[in-house]
Amino acid sequence: MYLKAINATLAAWVVGLFADANIRLGDPQGFLCLRGLLPVLAMGLCILSELKKK
């Protein structure tokens, strides 16, 4: 369980990092804060899936 949550969170952070660097939507720095949002969502989904199993 812990390893799955850690891997999902790290993978989401990397995806968010690449998305922040490559998506330009008018913000001069090009940051949408996806590298913070996606790991939080991934960890939340891991927690919810474990609660659903119980």
Which descriptors would you attach to this protein?
elongated; 2 helices; mainly alpha; 54 residues; single chain
Describe the structure.
The model has no long low-confidence stretch (mean pLDDT 89). The protein has helices at residues 2-22, 34-53. It has 2 helices and no strands.
Number of helices: 2
**Main sheet?**
none
Order of SSEs, N→C?
HH
The rounded Rg comes to: 13 Å
Distance between the termini: 13 Å
pLDDT averaged over residues: 89
Count all strands and give the number: 0
What class would the helix/strand composition place it in?
mainly alpha
- Give the uncertain stretches in residue-range form: none
Q: How much β-strand is present in the residues? A: under 5%
Shape: elongated
Q: Name the helicity range.
A: over 70%
Brief characterization of the structure:
The chain is 76% helix and 0% strand. The protein is an all-alpha fold. The protein is elongated and about 45 Å long.
Write the layout of secondary structure elements.
Elements: H1 2-22, H2 34-53
